[in-house]
Amino acid sequence: DESVKKEGSTLVHFGVSYAQESWELGLDIINLLDQEDDDIAYWFESRMIGETASFEDIHFHPSNPRAVRALLKYKF
């Protein structure tokens, strides 16, 4: 019913690759600007250990810090 909304977030990723014949070489930078934000958010009911009552709230997964990964691929 969209009665609960969370502010959106923007993450920037960068990727480049080069392919020639059977080889491919690539580089990805995840979270290029190293933003500290929520990657995804959910609204649901939960209860912490030791609490008797549950509560509804926004639960989120934080974004990962900047990461670099390389790709080396050979097709045969």
How is this structure best described in words?
The chain has 76 residues and is an all-beta fold. The chain has one domain (14-74). The protein is built from no helices and five strands. Strands 1-2-5 form a three-stranded antiparallel sheet, with no helix packed on it. Strands 3-4 form a two-stranded antiparallel ribbon.
Features:
76 residues, mainly beta, elongated, two-stranded antiparallel sheet
Nearest-integer average pLDDT: 92
> Could you say which overall geometry the principal axes of the C-alpha atoms support?
elongated
What is the count of DSSP helices, taking H or I runs of 4+ residues?
0
What is the percentage of strand-forming residues?
A: over 45%
Low-confidence stretches at least 5 residues in length (pLDDT < 50)? none
**How far do the termini sit from each other?**
52 Å
Query: What level of helicity do the residues show?
Result: under 10%
- How many extended strands? 5
The topology string of helices and strands comes to EEEEE
Radius of gyration: 20 Å
- Overall structural class, as computed from helix and strand content, comes to mainly beta
